[in-house]
Write a structure and sequence with these properties.
This protein is of the alpha+beta class. The chain has 4 helices and 6 strands, in the order H-E-E-E-H-E-H-E-E-H. The chain has one domain: Mago nashi protein, CATH 3.30.1560. The longest helix is centred in the last third of the chain and has 30 residues.
């Protein structure tokens, strides 16, 4: 189960293949936990998760280039989504005529800061493909004003909380052994 763009995206594109409802990608800024996350959710509400992080070295005084390379760790997992996320997706996709906004950008910080966390969603919603950046320094929560917008924001928050718990648990277990 190695991560390959062509498994999830149409040829030479960032558009998801039809069998996927949405994807979530996270790349950290300097002050976040150093991990990269790629999550893909299919039409059957199953997920494939690909995570890259650095294992904590046992002796911080011996950090060198070889140790950094050896500490690189990948975690791949696939399963059925947790019930609360399946329910949120089902709610969101129950609106057959609704649309999402193409952008939830704030106007104060349109370009964001250079050293920042990046969170991207690709989503197929009512036969429209959306590509949205959802980093906190880029979005304006006041733009989530319809019921569908609110459900999407709730889904985003639920996915991020679940992923943090899942990945933190794996990293903690990995670093103890």
């Amino acid at each position: 189960m190695n991560f390959k763009n062509e498994d999830f995206y149409e040829h030479d594109s960032t558009k998801l293949k039809e069998e996927y409802l949405l994807s979530y990608s996270f790349t950290p800024g300097l002050y976040d936990n150093i991990r990269i996350i790629n999550l893909f959710i299919d039409t059957n509400l199953n997920y494939q998760l690909f995570t890259f992080f650095y294992a904590q070295p046992s002796n911080l005084e011996e950090i060198n280039e070889d140790l950094v390379k050896e500490s690189r760790t990948t975690f791949e997992h696939q399963s059925k989504l947790p019930k609360r996320i399946r329910e949120r997706i089902t709610q969101l996709f129950s609106f057959s005529k609704a649309t999402l906004k193409q952008s939830y950008y704030n106007e104060k910080n349109l370009f964001g800061i250079l050293d920042r966390t990046q969170k991207y969603y690709q989503i197929h919603y009512n036969n429209v493909h959306y590509s949205m950046e959802m980093s906190l320094d880029r979005i304006d929560k006041n733009l989530f004003n319809t019921e569908v917008d609110q459900l999407f924001l709730q889904l985003t928050e639920a996915i991020e909380a679940w992923l943090e718990q899942l990945i933190d648990g794996f990293i903690h277990t990995h670093n103890e052994n």
